[in-house]
Amino acid sequence: MVGSLYIQSEYSMKNSTLKLERLFQLAKESGWDFVGIADDANLHALYKALKLSESYQIPVIIGMRLSLKVEESLVDFLCYAKDSTELKHLIYLSSLISMNSRLEIDDLLDELKQVTLVLPSIQPIFNDITDIDILKDKVLKIIKLIPTIHFGLSLQHEFNQISHVFYEIAKTYKRFILPTHQMNYASQEEKRSYDILKSIENTQYVEEISSKAFMNAFELRKLYKDYGFMFEHMDRLFGKTTYDYVHQTFDLPKYPTVKDTTSKDYLSALSILGLKKRLSKQQYASIEIYQKRLLYELDVIHQMGYDDYFLIVYDFVRFAKTNDILVGPGRGSAAGSLVAYCLGITEVDPIQYDLLFERFLNINRRTMPDIDLDFPDHKRDKVIEYVMHKYGKKHVVTISTFTTFAQKSSIRDIAKIMKIDSQRAGAILKSYINNHLDDTDFEAVDLIQVSKSIEGLPRQTGTHPAGIIISHEDLSHHIPLMTGPKEVLQSQLEASDLEALGFLKIDFLGLKNLSIIEDVLKLENYPIKLSDIPLDDPSTYQLLKDGDVDGIFQLESFGMRQTIRKMKPDKFEDIVALLALYRPGPMIFIDEYIERLHGKPYEGLDPSIDDILKPTYGIIIYQEQIMKILNEFAGFSYAEADIIRRAISKKVREVIESEKIRFIQRSNENGKDAHLAEKIYDAIERFADYGFNRSHSVAYALLAYQMAYLKTHYKASFMAVLMTNVAQNSELIKSYMETLHLNGIDMLPPDINLSLDQFIVKGQTLIAPLTMIKGIGPSLVQKIKVIRGEKPFVDYQDFKQRTHDTLNEKVVESLIYSHALDGFGLTKASLIQQLGYQTFGFESFIKDFKEKNEVEFDFEVLKEKEFEVFGFNIKYKHNPMIQELHKKYNIKSFKLEDEHVRTIGRITKVKVIETKQKQTMAFIQFESDYTVELILFPKAYEQYEKLLNEPYVLVEISKNKEKTNNDYIIKHIEKVKV
Question: Is-annotated flag, keyword Oxidoreductase (predicted)?
Fold first, then answer.
């Protein structure tokens, strides 16, 4: 049995360049009888290695390397599982180690006895021992420490006195001895990449002396020619190693139902009760249609074994809703389930919106259900904690993700190791991207080759942003675990591995927009229930038509804003369609859809399916429409139709052709014309890849509409919450200030006696938080809050007296220029003059002390300082002199979208350049109603050059149509009298 037990894969992060797939390929090509993996203290590769073993038809031996403390020294052990029973113990051992780094060997003895242990010959603990007797005693002591027959020794790739001692001990004490040539890269050519990879952590290049290159079967036998019997030991120990791990089944946790009631009956009872509550608010509903659909769904759910799954989701959604945690209206295909709607899991009526259950669960497609839930981002963890405590800490785990080395981003790391200047590394990367790399520049070529060799290797673990695994079993015995975020444990395996093993994954997603909705409702003292918001509110649709969509979920991007203005939505279905269309593929149909929406005539595909496409004006937008066409035209059941839709959308030509033949045949049997069937199938094929999940689109359109409604009717509160969430993003705040201005809402700067970390709403006025000031974060604001308590600061001296132990002069200066101290009645010049903390206090000894109020700084100084603390201007936005001149010369305010502008302002910066034709022109920064960039072309420059030094000028300018930003071309300049 030839092979090595000591291969380290890519999951020995930053310690191997051997990717798993490449490893198995090499082993197969090199005549190996097995692959033995021993990654560094983890089993991240477990599932993938077992699946690759099946694919390449070469056995795998699963192991890992552990470094454990033995009498204050670290000893490396190779731990293996020689069968399925030992694999369970190995998994548990890995979990114990990963969940508690402080464990010592005594804490692990019970599990170490249950696996196969190997003591490698090469490791630091033996390196400095020159006395053979001492070395023997040390090795024997370690062996006796773990009394098990499954503890042997190994010889690695270097043979010396240590190897001889290991051989003698194995022979004398009848211990097995195995060949464990350590392999961490594919060939000797990759050694340099490996050395650099290992050096990245310490940013210092260290070349490893020993070779850890992959060897073929012949090379391995040659290496161990004097110890050939070790391969026989390997065969006796691992020759029959197999695992049933990938073929296990794992049960869902059982929901604790009412005594003497099954999960099936309990789910049915809850659903029927929920349906009655839902229908009591719907006068138009046909009870029979709902009842028939509900019974059908319950039957499918029970047949597929998901009664407990629905009850578990219902339970934690109920917990959220009864504990002041908002739950999203739905996400994905789950919104097509009436059971989910009746249980309160979703808020979308699937019958009202013509949604198909089969898009979610399909009796013919045995996949796990996928109900993803949205919660406010700051409350998501509370729901996970509830689930963890209900089902047990080792039954609920998060999921590992891996950050990998990207070629471009890792080049700078590699360049540091290779002592290449960062500027040169950037230049090499740029030339490589542009396909201009000089093949004779060996340093550059070397850098690129090394970066390519480590590209895609895992760099570090992370946590899946939403996925949670819930299982009936104690997961520590079934999947390797590690420490996760907060108190929740984490699987060492990725989501794809866990789903392939049959574990139930539920996505708990944190959505900032739900937090915004929740906070707006709180500010307004919960004036309305979200479920009571009318979907036909004219003022809400007017807000959308106006493109006033800042902060509106899914609608606030620039492109979406332009599209929604063109569409002019006036009904809920318009928003549903918009969300489905505004994606890279179907975007090409947006203009055609909008034209048809506004009355453009179109020709339908066929009367038999016109009703299906009528709501979308003859364009297939939704996946559910494809399913309906397959059902209506060819008689496929919805379950069959979903499978066909999925197959077509994968773009596999053979599948598309075979399904086409079947569709035409079934259509013909259904009394339809074959030529027409071909035409309709071609349309389905064209749209299958573009088709969007209508259930998801309806649910997210509902969330978008709810936000638009709240913004329409509670605008000041909405904007306050929205701006609080981006208080330290000066660009967004500046943009949102324009929205405030257009809606007649004033924004006041921070106030030291009122402001904290949120915008305050006072009627149609917002007061900015202290966190909007650069350099003042939430922790400092909290300290100011404690100092302020219930007693406002009386004056500047009182403020300094109470804050001198907390604030430094730089922070106070920022507070001064942010206007936060304006309430003390002093000019900013006075506040700055009296800034020193070291000089305050004497005032209390002078009875008639009165602060001197200095003459204020001029406008430009105050404007500059205000900009420094905010990144934009609030009070000093418009120069008072410019305002006076506007009145004097009857100049009207302009908007940035205006094509032609006549205005008065101040030239604040001039950049003169020479064109290629040796002519002079200028770029000018100009301050008026806005600060804009003006272009003075050569002829105009020659005419108006002398006016560029004037303090204030009147300009006539036109929009520069070649650019999308606020650039204008100067047509005329004239001097104005101040």
Answer: no
